[in-house]
Each structure stands twice: as structure tokens, then as C-alpha cells.
UniProtKB/TrEMBL annotation:
Superkingdom of the organism of origin: Bacteria
Organism: Eilatimonas milleporae
UniProt keyword tRNA-binding present: no
Protein's recorded name: Sulfotransferase family protein
Molecular-function GO terms, alphabetical: sulfotransferase activity
GO cellular component: membrane
Alphabetized UniProt keyword annotations: Transferase
Gene3D superfamilies tied to this protein: P-loop containing nucleotide triphosphate hydrolases
Record's keyword annotation contains Oxidoreductase: no
Family annotation (InterPro entries): P-loop_NTPase, Sulfotransferase
Length: 204
């Protein structure tokens, strides 16, 4: 949940992991915004999760939401979000196939909702009344940045930033159609609130 501030505008970005938040953080930095409540240092080991991934219960305790000029969050289809998380874990050395990794990961997250730096927590847990919701499927690009800038007077000069490249080998070797029905059902059950809250169909 980084706070963006440029001396004039204060925005709270509720960063749901694996929903395109890194691109948005890069966009605000490119436009001269300072980023607060963002941590990648040694302190992370002593935290339940990094500040940039705080969910609604924590945010409501920390902040007066009315003090911000704008509060917004990003969301993504739950299955695509889980696949994106798996891709990242593979790049960090995960060897298990998705159909083994996903159920085991959901079980661990049931015991510890902060598991993997709050990456597995349902997106509905990040939602607060009055927060603007932006779906990754609507594309975070220059047109999106122009609309956000026009709506909220953000003073953007840069409307596009480089995207961090994904490993193309993953997309050549991973086929979502091969996910077993039992694993899909486990994901759908765990993220039931996300499907309902954000109007996602079961098929991405």
C-alpha cells in the first residue's frame, strides 16, 4: 500500500500482489512522486508482510483515508493471479508442478494468511469502501495513465514506463488448460469472495 506524494497530491495505492502494482509504482516514480511505506530491506524478516502489501484491516488502523486525494487498488482474475505467482516462484527456484504447488500453497495460506508476504491473500481482503478499483484486464498503459492523470490532476508528464519482462519460456511450457479440475476448484473455493466481489467469471 505505497503512499505516493509529490508535494501537492497524496495518493494511497492499495497494492494487491501480482495485479500490476509494480508497473504503477514505476509510473509514479517516473513522474517525480516520492513513495512511502515501501520496504525491501532487512526489516522484512521481522514483519508479517512488507508495508507495500498491507491489506484493508491494517490500512484502516494506520490511516485516515479521508486525508488522501485519491485511494485506489488494482485487481486481477484470481486464476491468472495465482499463475503469475507461480511463475515468479519458478524464477526463484520452485520445482514442483503447478498442480502440486497451488494446493499446498493455499493450505499454508489458510494457516498463515500472511504467507509469502501476503501474496496469497484474497483480493477482497484489500478492498475498502470508496476505493477506486482498476482491473488489470483493462490494461495499464499510456491511455490508462492519461485517464488517471486527467481525472485526478496528477501532473503526469510521463505516461508510459518500461515493463519488467516475464520469462517467455514459462508461457511456452505452461498451459492453463492443463490445470486439473480439482486444482481449479480449490482455487475457486479459496478465492470465492474475489470472484463475487470483482465480477470475475470462472474462466479468465
Amino acid at each position: 500500500m505505497p503512499v505516493f506524494w509529490n508535494g501537492h497530491k497524496k495518493l494511497l495505492f492499495v497494492h494487491v500482489p501480482k495485479t500490476g502494482g509494480t508497473y504503477i509504482e514505476d509510473l509514479f516514480r517516473a513522474n517525480g512522486y516520492r513513495v512511502y511505506f515501501w520496504e525491501r530491506g532487512d526489516l522484512i524478516d521481522q514483519m508479517c508482510c512488507s508495508p507495500q502489501h498491507y491489506h484493508a484491516d491494517i490500512l484502516r488502523t494506520l490511516f485516515r483515508l479521508s486525508a488522501f486525494d485519491h485511494v485506489f487498488m488494482t485487481v486481477r482474475h484470481p486464476l491468472k493471479r495465482m499463475i503469475s505467482e507461480y511463475r515468479m516462484r519458478q524464477e526463484k527456484g520452485e520445482k514442483r508442478p503447478f498442480h502440486d504447488w497451488a494446493p499446498a500453497t493455499l493450505l499454508k495460506a489458510q494457516d498463515d494468511p500472511f504467507y509469502l508476504d501476503n501474496h496469497i491473500r484474497p483480493q477482497a481482503d484489500f478492498r475498502m469502501p470508496g476505493v477506486d478499483i482498476h482491473r488489470q484486464e483493462d490494461a495499464f498503459n499510456a491511455d490508462w495513465a492519461k485517464r488517471l492523470n486527467a481525472q485526478h490532476g496528477l501532473g503526469f508528464q510521463v505516461m508510459e514506463v518500461p515493463r519488467r519482462r516475464e520469462n517467455p519460456d514459462f508461457h511456452r511450457t505452461f498451459n492453463p488448460d492443463d490445470i486439473p479440475a480439482s486444482v481449479r476448484k480449490a482455487i475457486e473455493a479459496y478465492y470465492d469472495a474475489d470472484y463475487r466481489s470483482f465480477d470475475y467469471g470462472l474462466t479468465p
